[in-house]
Amino acid sequence: MTNPPEPAPSPSITVGHLIDPDSEVRGLWIASVWNLDYPSRTDLSAAELEAEADAILNDCAANGINTIFFQVRPSADALYDSDLFPVSEALSSKGELVFDPLRYFVNEARPRNIRVFAWVNPLRATLTAADPESLPEKHPARVHPAWTVSYGNGRLYFDPGIPEVRQFVADGVREIVTKYDVDGVVFDDYFYPYPAYDDSGAILDFPDDASWEEYGGSGDRADWRRQNINDIVKRCYDTVHFIDPECVFGVSPYGVWQNRSGDNGGSETNSFEAYKYLYCDAPAWIDGGYIDFLSPQIYWDFDSTQASFDTLLRWWNDRLDGTNVKLYVSHAAYKYDEEDWPDPKGELVEQITFARAERSYYGSILYGYDELKRNANGVSDDAKEAFAPEIIYSAMQSNGLGVSVSSPVSGTVLDTPTTYILGLSDPFYPLTVNGERIGRTKSGYFSFRTTLENGENTFEFEQNGRKYTYTLYYGSKTGEIGDTSMEETPADPDPDAEEEEELTVLDRLAVSWSYPTTDVATDEDILWVSCVAPIDAEVTVTLDGETTPLVPLTDPKTRTVGDGWVYISYGKNIALPEAKTGEVRDCGTLLFSATHPDAEETLTREGIRVRRMGRDAVIALEVTAEETALKLTPQSLVYNDYPNQRAGMQAEAVAQRGGFYLLNMGGYLSEEDVRETGVRRRSKTVSVTDVRVENAGRTTELRFSAAAKPAVSASVEDGAFVVTLFGAENKAEITVGDNPLVASCTADTADTRTRYVFPLKDPANFYGWDFAYRDGETVVSLRNPIRADLDSDTPLSGIRIVLDAGHGGSDPGAFGPQRVEEGFSNSEKDLNLALTLAAAEKLRALGADVTLTREEDVTLDLAARAALLEELKPDLCLSLHQNSMGFASDVTRIRGTLGLWCAAGGELLADCVGRAAAASLGRNFRGTSWQALAMCRNAKFPSALIEVGFMTSVEEYETMTSARGIEKGAEGIADGVLAYVKRMTGFAE
Questions:
Q1: From edge to edge, which strands make up the β-sheet containing 413-414?
Q2: How large is the average pLDDT for residues 254-275?
Q3: By the 8 A CB rule, do 614 and 655 touch?
Q4: Do the bridges between strand 551-552 and strand 560-561 make them parallel or antiparallel, or are there none, so unpaired?
Q5: What span, in angstroms and rounded, lies between the C-alpha atoms of 314 and 888?
Q6: pLDDT at 773
Q7: How far from 158 is each of 123, 233, 274, CA to CA, in Å?
Q8: Per-residue DSSP letters for 320-378?
Q9: In what order do the strands lie in the sheet with 404-407?
Q10: What CA–CA distance (Å, rounded) separates 467 from 972?
Q11: How many Cβ atoms from other residues are within 10 Å of residue 571's Cβ?
Q12: Could you say which of 73, 328, 553, 691 would form a disulfide bridge with 363 (CB–CB 3.0 to 4.6 Å)?
């Protein structure tokens, strides 16, 4: 189409554009159809229309809106001075233009730094009328009734199959751009109408038989319809740019182009399809180069199973990546007031924040002015938060880099058929993988999920004329793709062939090893003993004056090897002597003796002490180390064990083996941490004669008076703090004084232990515990909530905080799209450190006393970190990390912030800080979870590990590798600590 010469538009005002043209579009749809947003009703006066327009502009300014998309033609009727269309029914029932809304918005928006786009419905001729003769004389459907058809919903539509209709749509756009200094023109999602249904529920076909017969062809009618829409879009694009090169033209299509089916290129959704039903083919406009922007209506949330927000956003970003078409996402602000989103707070912030990372994204448009005006369920609050920072999207720059894949590295052999591929490219140039365009973030990061064939899988990346070959293997690194051939199997071995013997050969004669390897105390009457000695030796063991021959456990055919001797194992169960009731018989040490023909004298080995425990006999122990592990089993992990015990703790051992004493109460103590104080008959439980709960200021003390120092365990269970004293029986009256933590106490003695149950006044009001033996009492101390001066400029004054930057040095943690060996410093350890340093600065500014486990890139193992925590015993500890996922995960969908805790006092801290960090970064808060983590296991103070985001989410990685992302993350950490201290202060008061 060639446009005839047209006069240049006369600017409606002389102010000019004040807003930076590269500013993020922060738009609002203003609907006039059915008087939804403006005007509020038909036949308002000019003054009333002006006042409502002013209110809209003021609301826009208050909510950070810089662009309005004003519906100037809802159905072939105009909210502006038109020579082609009658005055809109939304303005006047008499067809009188008492006020020009479009001109007023244009004139008044510019001084407020607000752009104005004219929103047009191109093909809907009427909203209710089906008879052209009932329309105003100027109405184009009455002037050209042959251009219209009546569809099943009782409305008239222009038939886009008629060439004159398509030109008329372009002429209508020309009129707007010629008469008004609008910044852009946009069509909504109404092209061919949304389906109507007959009485049986079948879709009514659009009645375009006449135009199809005259202008169609022998091809597919659906393709012809799509081409008609394509022609309209191109005509309007050309018209807009011919009249005003600075004006832009775009479309806001339905959010789903097509659902993926085979190789159709659609999205992983299950929804209505614009391509199929509205004949709207946005990818064709993109590829044709006749669209400036698209604003798909992604009116779903992240959790939608029909069409999730992130799935659709990434799909549109993929389609637009590498083009000049900008992506303005349309968001469903109206759903804040609908049952679809029952708890929408924060959804808009998360959507906009997530979208900002995408390569093609340049702005957001909110639909739901009424909800915004009323701040329905906080939608206005969310809009203000999302639009608070100034964001300028300047021209994309090359980073000078090629294509690299960080995970999995090329050549990896995977044991699952699906994997993600994560990497970095130059954002300036389009990127394809095996010929398919791949969307990226603004820094060029990309991730996608793929299915692998068995064997070798080759991916060809292409960018800026250069090709990169990348290979993964599934199942095996050998064989062709799809190879199903059987490998040749060796013949069965000769059954008469002799197997080669596995021999132990030494060049000396000795008893080289023996079992048991550590001292033994047991109440069993037999003991397995064994040793390793030369073959053909006579081997005995002597214990408590009794000598027992040991038998060979193997009989190899080879007796000697060169100058060496073949060694075998000898062993036997030996009888242990009786021990009297209540006594422990010391049987002495095991003496292994071996005589051999080649040895001039007897070979011996001794040193392991054996004791036989009599019935009811125990070995009395006293703990010598201040932090002594009391284990559930000798091999159990520290996370699952009893709490560490204090020096002076008294216990009774019923057995000894493997370097541990087995206690009467069931736990295990290492030989290295105790001393034996004697042997005695198993004692009865010690009596607890007094139990008191006292507020000691910084702590609430639970004081137990008893004649012994029992083993102590404690935990939070079902909203109560439960203290278990082993070997103790309650004989006390319990007194609970005034305190901020516990309400009462009950005691239950069973199986030689007593459980004291202290219901908490609030389960969240718990901050760790410790215990000590003082003045004849076992004192369990609970940290009281801290009372802070929240009105002070330094509300965290006096609060001791440890911040731990996870990983470091030779431990890089997880990798994102960039690998550290490529010379970049954006592995997890580096992001953690940057975030920790920034958070420390903010917390110190609030008065906190902050200690860092590391302040630079150094290797620091978990034991050293845990030891530092034990030394400092802070008021709280936060370990900052970034999350990651395994190769088989769909990392395009996994995002958000997670708070982790282990010891009970950390749960509230994990929730407060995790929630605040997520809110500050505009991320999904994935909640809190218990995990056995070294940095969170110390029960003496609250500690939490915050997984701030995912290294494997390119959108979150894009944020965290920016200065702004680190700043927002640090703000969130500080806000979370303040929220936590505020909760404590509330409990303290």
A1: 413-414, 466-474, 455-463, 432-433, 436-437
A2: 95
A3: no
A4: unpaired
A5: 19
A6: 96
A7: 5, 15, 18
A8: HTTSS-EEEEEE-GGGGGSTTSSS-TTHHHHHHHHHHTBTTEEEEEEE-HHHHHHTGGG
A9: 404-407, 418-424, 445-451
A10: 42
A11: 18
A12: 328
Distance, in Å, from the CA atom of 707 to the CA atom of 705, rounded to the nearest integer, reads: 7
Residue 556: φ, ψ to 5°: -70, 155
Quick one: DSSP state of residue 655?
E
Structural tokens at position 669: 């103590």
Q: Which two tokens stand for residue 945?
A: 């590990």
Q: What pLDDT is attached to residue 837? A: 98
| CA gap 771, 760 in Å, rounded | 18
The SS3 assignment for 675 reads: strand
Tracing tokens 């064990």 back to the chain, one arrives at: 641
Q: How far apart are the first and last CA of the chain?
A: 76
Distance from chain centroid for Cα 87? 52
The answer to whether the CB of 880 falls within 8 A of the CB of 946 is: yes
Q: Which has the closest alpha carbon to 389: 360, 349, 427?
A: 349
What is the pLDDT, as a whole number, of residue 230?
Answer: 98
- DSSP secondary structure of 484-543: -PPPPPPPPPPTTSPPPPP-EEESS-S--EEE--S-EEESSSEEEEEEEEETT-EEEEEE
Flag whether pLDDT at 206 surpasses 80.
yes
The three-state (H, E, C) secondary structure of 548-570, written as one string = EECEECCCCCCCEECCEEEEEEE
Phi, psi of 203 (to 5 degrees): -70, 130
Q: Are 210 and 221 in contact (CB under 8 A)?
A: no
Looking at residue 417, its amino acid is P
Confidence of residue 957 (pLDDT cuts 50, 70, 90): very high
| Residue 425: φ, ψ to 5° | -140, 175
Q: What are φ and ψ of residue 383, in 5° steps?
A: -65, -45
How many angstroms separate the CA atoms of 648 and 777, rounded? 12
Q: Which amino acid is at 758?
A: F
Q: CA-to-CA distance for 972 and 959, rounded, in angstroms?
A: 14
CA distance 652 to 630: 13
What whole-number distance in Å separates Cα of residue 918 and Cα of residue 897? 6
Handedness of CA 953, 958, 960, 961 (dihedral sign): positive
Q: Give me the helices (H) in 128-200, please.
A: 140-143, 163-179
User: What is the amino acid identity at position 152?
Assistant: G
Instruction: Name every residue whose Cβ is closer than 8 Å to that of residue 328 and which is 6 or more positions away in sequence.
Output: 25, 27, 250, 293, 294, 295, 362, 363, 364, 365
Beta bridge mates, 717: 720
In our burial notation (b when 16+ CB lie closer than 10 A, e otherwise), range 945-962 reads bbbbbbbbbbbbbbbbbe
Asked whether 183 and 115 are in contact (CB, 8 A), the reply is: yes
Between the CA of residue 458 and those of 73, 156, 415, 451, 800, what are the distances in Å? Answer: 52, 54, 16, 12, 54
Pairing of strands 674-681, 617-623: antiparallel
Tokens found for residue 534: 């030369």
Only one residue has tokens 């970034």, namely 882
Out of 7-21, 189-203, 466-480, pick the least confident: 7-21
Structure tokens at 638: 């520290």
pLDDT band at residue 17 under the 50/70/90 scheme: very low
DSSP classification of residue 822: G
DSSP, residue by residue, 104-146: HHHHHHGGGT-EEEEEE--SB--SS---GGGS-TT-HHHH-GG
